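Help!! Second protein's tokens look totally different from the first
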Amino acid sequence: MNLQNFEENINEVILARGKKYYDQDHIEKLEEVNSNHYIFQVSGTYDYTVHIFLTDTGEMKDTYCDCPYDQGEFCKHQVAAFYALRYEKGRKEEKTESTQLVIQENKSELESILSRLNKQELLKIIIDIADEHALIEKRLLARYTPVKDEVESSKKLIKEYIKQYKRRGFIQWNEVYEALQGANITLEKAEEKIAESDALRAVQLSMIVLSSVVEMLQFCDDSNGYVGDVIRGSLNMIHQAVDIHANSLDEKQKENLYLSIMKEAMRPYYDDWSEWRIDLLRSCIPLCDTDKRRIKLNKLLEDMLKTVKSDAWSDKYETQAIKLLQLQLIEQLEGKEKGLKFIYSNLQYSDFRERAILHLLEEKKFKEVVQLCEEGIKIDRQYRGIIYEWKKYQLEAFEGLGDIDKQKEIMVSFLYDNRYEYYSRLKQLFSANEWPEFLEEIVKTFKEDRYAPSAYVEILKEEKMSSHLLEYCSKNLDSIKQLYPYLVDEYFDEVNKLFIKYIELQSEQSGDRKKYRNICSLIKLYKKVCGTTHFQMLIDHLKEEYKRRPTFIDELNKISS
């Protein structure tokens, strides 16, 4: 069915009702997900949602509505949406064609006209446009202001954009991106400054963005994460400027850069965003090549540690982040040996413990690795992900020690934790005679689990244990869709029965067109697996069983005709 002539395929009564809905403006909202998928909000006694999927030629691949109508293929809400979409696409195409033609003609004509104007005439055109459009004026000023004024003009540009989209003291989620354009323009300029080796100006511009946007979080809905992206971009720009140019700066430039970063990091609005404060202070480390700057930064870090009092995970994470900065300072100025001592004095923090473990692995001190991992498992017993990391390092240590039994023990625990990637490595630790008995033990353990994980299925597939797979499918009917290739040759009749049972169960529980279509997709798979004869028998059975469900019958007819 094509959008241009959909009327030919719709019942006259439904067509008239849908047209009336369209004419009476029941279409509340149109969302274009992409060029071929449209979502409509249609009002009435209740509000309903209509989805329309088109091909590039306007053919309707699919459409459905979440209303309860079940007496035909299309409802009045869908028809109203068809009319609205056809009108909208026609209007857009007409506008696009005429606009493209005008643009092409005008662009050539404009270039020709402007090329004949003198400097004063061009200047007047730019000033007139800037007078009419305040944001264009601000953008031009930010882009071309003399160097000595560009920081202040960039600050104004950022605030102008934010102010334009701030309504009743708040910026809605769908206007946040536009409100950030001044910030993005400023970051582009900061990037240019890095390329020009002007690290101080790059940092100043980035910090203007950072402070403005952090403040903006207090009065905007950042559901899309755009503000967070700009903040991270600002911090990365500051790191980049310092890392690239720190060694080429003279002492006065380093001091100015160091002080400006320290000043920004200690502003009160970072009190609730400590991770960004810490990230800013990280940029100071390459500048701490004098005792004065190093001592000042270290004192600040010590003072910050004193304010972290709670034992909550978030506060422990903050403490660890601060101590990692102290470690960077020590390693940079006092060497690796002093750094190692600091690491071993802070093993209660997982990042420090991991660094110690990696050092010991490099030194091949495997017994000490095992011990550190055991302690880590006890300390972090409530954090499953971290425990997994400690066990991985233990496994590496036991491999270094040649302890086969311990390797087996850890990899079996990984397997029961649904980490199938260790299966082949585990199998290699057994002889050909030992493996079958151990495999049966693994299978037995998984079978006792009411909700056997995917690793169990992967093992059954790998070992071609089809009888166990069949039993699994009998308990988990939906799995037959994925597992039939491993069963159909040996257990055709059983696979056929499982498919029928699953399809019948889905049919009982369904009551709208979308679900009926999903069932029909499943039936088409059943035809591929079990053949046309069984397929037709099932279709006939379902038509008889659900003869009072015309929408379901309609969908069944589509796949059986």
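Here's the second one for comparison:
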Amino acid sequence: MGTRLRGVGVSHGVAIGEVRHMGTAVLEPPAGATAAADVPREVGRARRAAEAVAADLVARGTLAGGEAQAVLEAQALMARDPELLADMERRVGVGATAEQAVSDAFAVYRALLSGAGDYLAGRVADLDDVRNRIVARLLGVPVPGVPDSEEPYVLIARDLAPADTALLDPTLVLGFITEEGGPTSHSAILARSLGVPAVVGLAGARDLAEGAVVAVDGSTGEVVVDPSAEERAALAKAAAGRRAAVAAATGPGATSDGHRVPLLANVGGPDDVAAAMAAGAEGVGLFRTEVLFFERAKDLGAGQGPSEEEQVAAYRRVLEAFPEGRVVVRVLDAGADKPLPFLTADDEPNPALGVRGLRALLARPEVLGTQLRALARAAAGLPVHLEVMAPMVADRADARAFADACRAAGLDARYGAMVEIPAAALRARALLQEVEFLSLGTNDLAQYAFAADRQAGALARHQDPWQPALLDLVALAADAAKAEGSSCGVCGEAAADPLLACVLTGLGVTSLSMAAAAIPHVRAALARHTLAQCERAAAAARAADSAAQARAAAQAVLSGE
């Protein structure tokens, strides 16, 4: 019998193969100094290397598309950060080499992020990756990263930088295991979009021997080291059973007794529509419009976003794909880990708790007005059911301000509010006096409820969407929506967990939106259970004292134990 380890399964499927470790060596700049006469040349080298890395990250994002593109383009902004570039230039001016200046400037920013609270501390891995790429380019050496192998393998890493995860080759990387990360980390989200079996948060993962054979079950989070023939067969049988159940479940999302639960897709733009349709999405539950803004900020510089005409064209392509379907658009969500220089300040002491989301838009009403007018024009003449929602709504005043802006723009749509702040869940009925629907962003709701960033592996237990306190907040919002005759969906990554999707349904959530690849698995899970079973599972999960106990309690109810 092989040794069994347990992490967090974040991407469905079973992979069996030999271990290959991610290259993680930190590139140290050689000792040296820059003479005064050589300062312009060294500054030029540093700036060209930083821009080349930024361009490479953007190119990788374009190739990867979907959610990966937004993540990588946000990372490219780090390489182009004007303050960081100015710091590098200052260091070269006092005698540092380009390599040393880059390393030291990034070290300062790394220390600032590490000490700026959990939300920003979780971005340190992304910053380290950018630093390594710039230094490697200056030194003319390869960047430590995905191993070079001609044979398929299971990739092991402390964590995976977005640039590495986005372009993993599924024909070579059978699956991956990380020591850090949680179910809503960038690596987990990208793994689901790639369809690569993955387990994260596995303590001791880097102690697995190079070349050892492991079996990775991305559904259960189990990793078996040196599995026996019987164990391999059992894993293969379980995986085949799950695939058969997925294939058998077709049509609209519903429980086995016919309770409808529309299954929608999260998209970042027109390029994601094909995958959503192929998965049988009944519409779009989260259209992340900020992706377009980051693309235009990259192309046009920091001073402006996309024009109204550009926005109309992009929005219409998505709306046209779902005639008679439902498309829920989130207006621009910028700030914190998604800064836009023309919209958000770069000197906030704690951006995660600062002017982000709707707050930033209300401070710049012309940006919000342009986007809402573009949506109104894009939907004109189409039979689509358009819904538009605001991110980071805290109270009724926020909800009223957003609804007023929608009306002023002549937008013929349902107006809604995202529930990402605990105050919004607690006062959900008040919000629904101003807007017509709610959408729960469970990723941010967990972060703010537990003060735990989703990128911080050390805080993974607080990020777990099975936390009973988070389920309580979901129930509060769903109950409020039911009392007001409104709808309450979930568009966070929690909806992508088939077991949790049943619990969310039992809590009263009226629709589920997720990465397209997860839709068939969630459809199959719902089709196996009645609404009453889902409600009993939800009650059992809420009665638990921990995320692990909540999952186990729900599993026991739904499996008939």
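Reply: Different proteins will give different token patterns, so don't panic. The chain has 24 helices and 16 strands.
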